[in-house]
Amino acid sequence: MTILLYELVGADPSRPFSPHVWKIALALAHKGLPFETVPVPFTGVPKIEGGFSKTVPVIRDGGTLMKESFDIAVYLEETYPDRPSLFKGEGGKAAARFVERWSQAVVRPYLGGAALMDIYGRLAPADQAYFRPSRQARFGDRSLEEVSGEREAGLHAWRAGLEPLRDMLSYQPFIGGDGPLYADYIVAGFLQWMRVVSPFRFLDPADPVAAWFERCLDLHGGLMRKVPAAA
């Protein structure tokens, strides 16, 4: 049975951008599980599956509904143990939880602020009306324009914060080692988020992290690359 994956979109339903949904799209492809996506705008998320979740991703696998990206990844691992592993054991799962927390603390905050106006510009009017006040409240009642306007000033520090990943990639091609695991998809999802919504050059092309991300873009038949970079 085909799994349904609810994904976040703006006015263009062909450009899903939620980093957390991208993690699960990659995880499903890694497992070789057939899935279909259901595009949902911001204002439609509370209506998914009768109000099952306030956020995406949400999947329906037959009679099972799941939410929260890490919980979904664990569900896929446990439900389909005969498929390629996302963690390669409990140690890999524990390491992925660390990568998730590191990403939330180091990778996401800067990108979230840097992309605010780019995301806003890609939304339909009803979603813009929701997005502006909700995000301005999240950033201390500062305007979207003010927060996004600081992205150049914060870029160097953000790139420097990627040094642990950069150093790791000096001796292995993926966070998972010779091949990708869910830990790779966690970080790649955040970078894909920025790639899809903004033309801002957030990675230095000469950075090993950029080379790793290019490898991730090629994974699973170029799943992420099928959505063109923002222009």
From TrEMBL:
Keywords: Transferase. The keyword Transferase applies. Gene3D superfamilies: 1.20.1050.10, Glutaredoxin. Pfam families: GST_C_7 (PF22041), GST_N_3 (PF13417). It comes from the Bacteria. GO terms for molecular function: transferase activity. GO terms for cellular component: cytoplasm. Residues 8-84 form the GST N-terminal domain. The keyword Transcription does not apply. PANTHER family: GLUTATHIONE S-TRANSFERASE OMEGA, PTHR43968. This is Glutathione S-transferase. It comes from Mesorhizobium australicum. The lineage of its organism: Bacteria, Pseudomonadati, Pseudomonadota, Alphaproteobacteria, Hyphomicrobiales.
